[in-house]
Amino acid sequence: MNEILETVAAAAPEIRAGLPDRRRYADAENPSGERQLAADEYADKLLGDRLTALGSVASYASEERTDVIESEGRYHVAVDPLDGSSNLRSNNAMGTIVGVYDEPLPAPGRSLVASGFVLFGPITTMVAAEAGTVTEYVLEDGNPTIATESVTLPAEPTVYGFGGRVPDWPAAFADYAESIEQELKLRYGGAMIADVSQVLTYGGIFAYPALKSAPDGKLRLQFEGNPIAHIVETAGGASSDGARSLREVEPSDLHERVPVHVGNESLVDRLEAALGESRHA
Ligand code: AHM
Ligand code: MG
């Protein structure tokens, strides 16, 4: 594991231990205009301090801060310190996402050299994509122990989870969702990484689609879309913004949002066909 992923893994028990006292809202909003919890600020500060101290880190960007912190090194790190933090109040799963880019941010997802997420579920795990393979680790005291080598999406999909209110879905996505509902079982938990972990484990599709009220959806390209696309694609699945792999989207802004669809390739192909564009066209 590279030292950036190792550092995120090592910080996980400390972040987890800091959660019980930080379930209240802070007095601030993040750059996307969402209310921050004390836990969001805490995890961002801790990860920013640890990662910028590494010789390999050239810059640190986070969903929870407006500007990039510059440092001196080779890699540009984008972090969602607590993905799904609204789940903290109800004590449901959440965690940390990290993307290691070899270009200054904002950067396209194809420049990711490693990506990972820490999942605070009943146990703390880390799923990491690097060097063409996805590995699941159990984190005991921050020390990664391999749990699953060469994580691969099962060929037969089982689960789906789609974000956003149904009346807010564009008609083409609603039609697609109706056909998926006939085949797969609903699993939606409100934290992308937890929902994607189910897709990696059981096969299926996760989406936070374009909405009528928000044509770019909710999730952020640099911090959420790209790293999760890198992980799912490396595990043999596919990703899409509706028309192309998320990793082919050219970014224009650090905090820009993007519709996210990730899962078994056959299901992502059907999604693109349903939305009227095919990435194979
Ligand atoms: P966050 O990073 O601020 O927690 O927001 C991202 C989360 C995703 O993990 C999840 O897929 C989505 O927001 C859930 O949104 P909703 O509450 O609309 O279902
Ligand atoms: Mg998030």
Folded structure, characterized:
The chain has 281 residues and is of the alpha+beta class. It folds into 2 domains: 2-148, 2-Layer Sandwich (Fructose-1,6-Bisphosphatase, Chain A, domain 1); 159-279, 3-Layer(aba) Sandwich (D-Maltodextrin-Binding Protein, domain 2). Helix content is 27%, strand content 29%. The protein has 6 helices and 15 strands. The protein has helices at 3-17, 38-52, 171-181, 192-202, 221-234, 265-274; strands at residues 25-29, 35-37, 57-62, 69-70, 75-83, 94-101, 112-120, 124-130, 133-140, 143-148, 159-162, 185-186, 204-208, 238-240, 260-263. The strands form 3 sheets. The protein has an 8-stranded mixed β-sheet with strand order 4-3-5-6-7-8-9-10, with helices on both faces. The chain has a 5-stranded mixed β-sheet with strand order 12-11-13-15-14, with helices on both faces. Strands 1-2 form a two-stranded antiparallel sheet. The longest helix has 15 residues, at 3-17. The site of 2,5-anhydro-1,6-di-O-phosphono-D-mannitol has 13 residues, from strand 5.
Chart the SSEs and their pairings.
Layout: H1 3-17, E1 25-29, E2 35-37, H2 38-52, E3 57-62, E4 69-70, E5 75-83, E6 94-101, E7 112-120, E8 124-130, E9 133-140, E10 143-148, E11 159-162, H3 171-181, E12 185-186, H4 192-202, E13 204-208, H5 221-234, E14 238-240, E15 260-263, H6 265-274
Helix pairs in contact: 1-2
This protein binds 2,5-anhydro-1,6-di-O-phosphono-D-mannitol and magnesium ion.
